[in-house]
Known about the structure:
The longest helix is centred in the C-terminal third of the chain and has 33 residues, at 396-428. It is globular, with a radius of gyration of 21 Å. It is built from 15 helices and 10 strands. α2 packs across α13 (325-332), α4 packs parallel to α7 (183-198) and α9 (239-253) packs across α15 (396-428). The chain has helices spanning 3-7, 24-40, 56-76, 101-114, 135-144, 146-151, 183-198, 200-203, 239-253, 260-266, 295-310, 320-323, 325-332, 335-345, 396-428, and strands spanning 13-18, 46-53, 88-95, 120-123, 130-133, 156-158, 212-216, 277-282, 349-354, 360-365. Residues 1-9 have low confidence and may be disordered.
Amino acid sequence: MTDRQHANVEDFHNYVLVTGANGGLGYAICCRMIDEFILTRPSSHSLRLIITTRDKTKSHDTVAKLKDHIFRTRKHHKVHEKSPLVPKIYLQSEQVDLCQLRSVQVLVQRLIRSLPKLDTVILNAGHGGFTGLDWPLVIWSILTNFHQALTYPTFKLGGVGDLTAPQVSDISSTEARSTQLGQVFCSNVFGHYLLVHGIAYLLSNSPATSGRIIWTSSLEAYDSTFSIDDLQGLSSPSAYESSKRLTDILALSSRLPSAQPWVDGFLPPRSDHRPPKQYVAHPGICATNILPIHWILVYVMTAAFYVARWTGSPWHTVTSYKGACAPVWLALASQEELDAIEENGGAGKWGSAIDWQGEERAMRTEVQGWGVGGEVGDNVDLPKNSRPREAEDLNEDGKARFGLIGRTCWQSMEKLRVDWEEILKEEDD
């Protein structure tokens, strides 16, 4: 497809990519996006939803479930499948293993060949790397501070030093350190990073709007779990939390002037199109299978989450569908609305929040070192129980430190990307 054909794609054709779509939050994001698109868009619009899973079987099953969901949504709202009064939904499945960089490169080439543009990429796929729970700490935390324990847990146990399978066949051809990639880091951050860099052209290919990159973070993105000297979290028992803190840092610092030279390397600017914008969202607290616990305990956990919601927690969305609120809102809101919000309140981390009656909404989330909008003295009235007990208001020193860490993280990620692209190219040669 030529550049001219790419540029002439009408804006009412929406192309959205969701990674890790076969279950949990990823599948819920797809379902919620389909529902909201059908209910809010005119018949002249269409949605092509590109979903990724790790194998063809999961892709086939996910597409079948989503087709059934589309049918049930239309039936519920009494809309015929071929009605000219509703927008059209198209599904496209792709396979990728984010822990295998070759697999990411193959997906990039397939997307470039098959798509004219991408409006939004929701980077949802990931890996927890958890091995269990510290049960004495679980009991103590819940008994001494119920809401904090269930919102900002510190009792999860994670593997230390877990690596991906070798990325190159001849390991001896490269220094050992160059062939090591942390499994959680690669799945949650670096695999997505390479993917977005590879498809940056598609995200810049809509002449009227900016493409959107929506990173999926967590309430557990604790500053204390991340070290710039251990970018991949290989020495940490909190590799998951470390990866989510890195996600926050990359997304929020992406528009800081100090990080711009490396952001421009990640997303090469095009003079004739608007550059993509990066956002970060989290689903609140959902009852998913990310923890390796007995199924009976899953029911106990879910019940505790409902109690937390009914007693004042704004973050216990419990179900993945309600947890999908914030990322779907970021994907479907008009660019004018998002720009106006950021002009008035700054760029921020958006979370799926909920009231005790179960009504969900997208809400700003405080980030250590950034606050809610990147400015000291942010006048945002955060609900009770919406921040960690030990949280401190943003000050100038914290803001400066966040900017410095952001710059260093972008520099390190770009170096890692370039190094790995050269390693893979050398093996091809």
